[in-house]
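Milestone 3.1: sequence recovery, worked example.
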């Protein structure tokens, strides 16, 4: 299972469990909380009514009831009173209190409602919890389930003592059915559920975004790690991703570790490759030097001396190019930016290579010449073009032709150099630009084919990478066409560099 899916499932699981328990706790607390609030109001109501009925109960003859008392009439008037109240958007159209009064022995002397079981006047309520506790001087309350309402008490009873001085002469109980507030409970539960689902959805959305960010960051780190070795083998340097927080610290640590490892690998590769490349010229110099110790005709001595000079020059070029490539591979960015005319830079490189081209009898033909500019470092661009021209000169047959083109293609400027030499086999095209990889040059008259160091095209590729461009090569039938592609300089680049 992929990391992103694991993180997402884990977040969903945690959020779902948390939301479930939170909603369960809220739902489980709504009904008890409402019942407590109702009970609190009933306590106040019962004590007020107990004060109001005190005189009527004290004046009641023994064995009689309060059915005809002024208090009873007022309470009945309350029950018959029309009402239409809007309470937070909910309509209330009935008054729901039931009031009953017992004497000091627990006998019901007044009952205002016809509840399940009928009117209770004359019945003995002395064993009911609300009456029994109140007569003992304690807080009296009870709940019944005469009508089941979602597993909660359907009716709450709260009693208050009726006192005459220090003596308790009776008990007044106020009852309220919970069904009358059920609609408020249902609405509260619905609102909690809806808002809880919204909260859960928002949390999941945040979780998706956080998971996506983590996965995106980790994938960038993975991409960086996977391409370090590949880029090193191909001469490309992959930049570490720019991240924040701990992942940013990890990226910087990986880059530092990569730099240290690359330093060791770079030295090993260079030493190995340089040793291999220097074997041939050193062997040739050694052989010529041994022969020069002998008595030789003047012509042979001159030939061996020339061979020593040529091989020494070859080693010098090899070392210089290797040093140049090493500096390029360790550069992170361009340092001296300017708006550069590509065709003018190619003219500079041509001037440097003209001597070698004339020695081989080569001619240069412009196929297309635009005056478009790119943003770059002029010295490095000329360096890349010089190496490209040197490569074309080396592979061109004596008296051959080199074709040049500078043209604009969309938002890019293309420079193409084509020789008319033997070209490059298809199997070797993918490896062009690697350090020390090269194909044999055309053979000179009377000489075996020569093989270059492969550093020229490696330098070209490094320069193009620093400029955000690319280098491509394709068979030209005959020869090889190498194309450099730069992003076209924008007006903003002209303004920044003053070009």
């Amino acid at each position: 299972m992929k990391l992103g899916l694991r993180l997402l499932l884990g977040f969903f699981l945690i959020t779902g469990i948390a939301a479930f328990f939170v909603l369960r706790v809220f739902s489980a607390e709504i009904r008890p909380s409402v019942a407590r609030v109702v009970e609190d109001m009933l306590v106040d109501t019962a004590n007020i009514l107990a004060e109001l009925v005190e005189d009527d109960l004290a004046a009641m003859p023994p064995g009689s009831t309060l059915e005809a008392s002024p208090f009873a009439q007022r309470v009945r008037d309350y029950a018959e009173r029309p009402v239409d109240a809007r309470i937070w958007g909910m309509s209330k159209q009935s008054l729901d209190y039931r009031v009953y009064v017992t004497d000091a022995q627990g006998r019901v002397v007044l009952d205002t409602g016809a509840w399940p079981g009928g009117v209770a006047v004359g019945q003995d309520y002395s064993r009911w919890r609300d009456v029994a506790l109140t007569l003992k001087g304690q807080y009296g309350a009870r709940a019944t389930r005469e009508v089941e309402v979602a597993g909660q008490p359907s009716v709450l009873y709260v009693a208050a003592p009726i006192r005459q001085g220090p003596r308790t002469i009776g008990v007044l109980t106020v009852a309220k059915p919970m069904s009358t507030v059920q609609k408020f409970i249902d609405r509260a539960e619905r609102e909690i559920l809806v808002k809880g689902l919204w909260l859960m959805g928002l949390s999941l959305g945040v979780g998706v975004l956080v998971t996506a960010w983590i996965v995106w960051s980790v994938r960038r780190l993975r991409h960086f790690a996977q391409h370090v070795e590949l880029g090193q083998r191909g001469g490309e340097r992959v930049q570490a991703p720019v991240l924040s927080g701990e992942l940013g610290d990890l990226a910087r640590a990986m880059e530092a570790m990569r730099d240290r490892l690359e330093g060791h690998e770079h030295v090993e590769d260079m030493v190995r490759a340089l040793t291999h490349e220097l074997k041939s010229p050193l062997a040739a110099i050694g052989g010529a030097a041994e022969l020069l110790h002998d008595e030789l005709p003047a012509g042979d001595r001159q030939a061996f001396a020339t061979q020593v000079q040529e091989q020494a020059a070859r080693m010098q070029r090899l070392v210089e190019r290797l040093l140049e490539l090493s500096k390029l591979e360790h550069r992170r960015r361009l340092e001296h930016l300017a708006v550069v005319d590509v065709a003018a830079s190619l003219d500079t490189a041509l001037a440097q290579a003209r001597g070698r081209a004339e020695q081989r009898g080569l001619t240069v033909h412009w196929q297309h010449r635009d005056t478009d500019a790119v943003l770059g470092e002029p010295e490095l661009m000329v360096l890349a073009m010089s190496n490209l021209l040197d490569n074309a000169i080396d592979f061109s047959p004596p008296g051959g032709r080199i074709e040049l083109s500078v043209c604009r293609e969309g938002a890019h400027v293309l420079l193409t150099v084509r020789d008319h030499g033997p070209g490059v086999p298809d199997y070797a095209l993918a490896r062009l630009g690697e350090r020390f990889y090269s194909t044999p040059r055309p053979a000179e008259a009377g000489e075996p084919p020569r093989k270059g160091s492969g550093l020229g095209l490696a330098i070209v590729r490094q320069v193009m990478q620093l400029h955000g461009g690319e280098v491509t090569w394709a068979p030209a039938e005959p020869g090889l066409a190498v194309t450099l592609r730069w992003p076209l300089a924008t007006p903003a680049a002209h303004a920044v560099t003053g070009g």
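The mean pLDDT is 78. Residues 414 and 485 are 5 Å apart (CA to CA).
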